[in-house]
Amino acid sequence: MGHVLLTGATGRIGTALVYCAGFSPIAAVARSGPETWRRTMAVNVASTAELVRLALPALRRSRGHVVFVNASPGMTGVPRWSAFVAGKAAMREPDDSLRE
């Protein structure tokens, strides 16, 4: 999966990275095959980490911030949204670990 960092007219990353994305298949665990889980984790977890990794040096130089927009299913289960809920919950801890 490729990633693109959008920058302003200056060609530099500004003072914030706002991450708000998600892939949300609606299926119970019994109907969620391995590809559903892989894709959901790739979009909702791995792409988050990669985007932050790429932007972090510039954000540190500018004393910028990373803002993650999560979903309430990341806090509590929702019937038939098993992979989505797991992906959003998986975002919480790495997000907190950025508070260095």
Explain this structure to me?
By secondary structure, this protein is mainly α. It has one domain (26-97). It has two helices and two strands. The chain has helices at 34-61, 82-97, and strands spanning 16-19, 65-68. Strand 1 (16-19), helix 1 and strand 2 (65-68) form a beta-alpha-beta unit. The chain starts with 15 loop residues before the first strand and ends with a helix. Keywords: Oxidoreductase. It comes from Nonomuraea turkmeniaca. Belongs to the short-chain dehydrogenases/reductases (SDR) family. GO terms for molecular function: oxidoreductase activity.
Largest sheet: 2 strands, parallel
- State the total count of DSSP E strands: 2
Report how far apart the termini are: 28 Å
Structural class: mainly alpha
Shape annotation: elongated
Helix content: 40-55%
Spatial extent as radius of gyration: 15 Å
Beta content: 5-15%
Written as H for each helix and E for each strand, in order along the chain, the element string is EHEH
Give the rounded overall mean pLDDT.
79
Strands across the major sheet, in which order?
1-2
Total of helices: 2
The unreliable regions are none
Total of domains: 1
Instruction: Give the oligomeric state of the chains in this entry, treating copies of one chain as homo and distinct chains as hetero.
Output: single chain
